[in-house]
Amino acid sequence: xxxxxxxxxxxxxxxxxxxxxxxxxxxxxxxxxxxxxxxxxxxxxxxxxxxxxxxxxxxxxxxxxxxxxxxxxxxxxxxxxxxxxxxxxxxxxxxxxxxxxxxxxxxxxxxxxxxxxxxxxxxxxxxxxxxxxxxxxxxxxxxxxxxxxxxxxxxxxxxxxxxxxxxxxxxxxxxxxxxxxxxxxxxxxxxxxxxxxxxxxxxxxxxxxxxxxxxxxxxxxxxxxxxxxxxxxxxxxxxxxxxxxxxxxxxxxxxxxxxxxxxxxxxxxxxxxxxxxxxxxxxxxxxxxxxxxxxxxxxxxxxxxxxxxxxxxxxxxxxxxxxxxxxxxxxxxxxxxxxxxxxxxxxxxxxxxxxxxxxxxxxxxxxxxxxxxxxxxxx
Length: 379
Ligand code: ZN
Ligand code: ZN
Known about the structure:
Blueprint: E1 12-16, E2 22-27, H1 32-45, H2 47-69, H3 75-101, H4 115-122, H5 127-140, E3 156-157, E4 162-163, E5 169-171, E6 176-178, E7 183-185, E8 190-192, H6 197-226, H7 232-265, H8 269-273, E9 277-278, E10 281-282, H9 291-299, H10 324-373
Helix pairs in contact: 2-3, 2-7, 3-6, 4-5, 6-7
The structure holds zinc ion (2 copies).
One zinc ion is lined by residues 157, 159-160, 170, 176-177.
């Protein structure tokens, strides 16, 4: 590939095929249509958030005003219901806002390929050598990389022009490589990732508790709906309040349970479907530090702050502690490589000896031939 003159703002386009092989195809082309539609797409992405916000506003009206203030007669019950509902509502809203507005952490500058790197890479003619250069770049910059592609190469993002940190993935909606990406959630118009995973789980928990509380406390008044004892406007609000609470309780509980299972195993949704890959192969348990330590990775060291939607997750999202299991695999792999090296050295020495023997034999044969062809020699 011919060398190209690049200025400091030029991006590099890298293609990665299914086998994890990289292909460097030159300066990145901008998508004109995407740029033009960017504002429309950005507005459209907020629709699910507006929908959730509208449901939250309506549920407050239906529960506090229609159920508590206009339907329940007992002042004590009214007071208790309003206090508990407001507490759960506040925590739900707080964790939801944190999930929506916490920016996803992206890869630090050290992981980005510069034009100098690009110039080094394009000089090479084989994928093997290009991958070797990437290994060298990651070593020079002391990047903490353990994850690999299927072919054992350094993981590259062909969109962001960077070496992917461990557990980071490219989000096509956010158009960025996101640290410890779990999934992109349209209901929060954000990536659920390293920076907001705790908030997301707390949002699931508090919203589930709020819906469950709403369903249980509105149930007796839902029954009154069928005996026509409720005022006309209130009865439809209470009817929908009960149905919406039940519906959301079920879906939120299943989602919350699933994410608690993932937290306890220190896995992301993506890793649960496809195990993280290392130099020795896939390992789903590489980051599994035990249940308590896994919880601490997301919720932090201070148990007093576990249920509060403030940032307490451990680390920086770029490198993660490994298990003994992973360390053992790595040691095994290194041993194998050393043995292979020894084997290949022995093989080379053997080949050298063989070729020297052959040379000596040939020389001897030549001498014999020469002797045979010597004039005057006897046959
Ligand atoms: Zn990317
Ligand atoms: Zn995203």
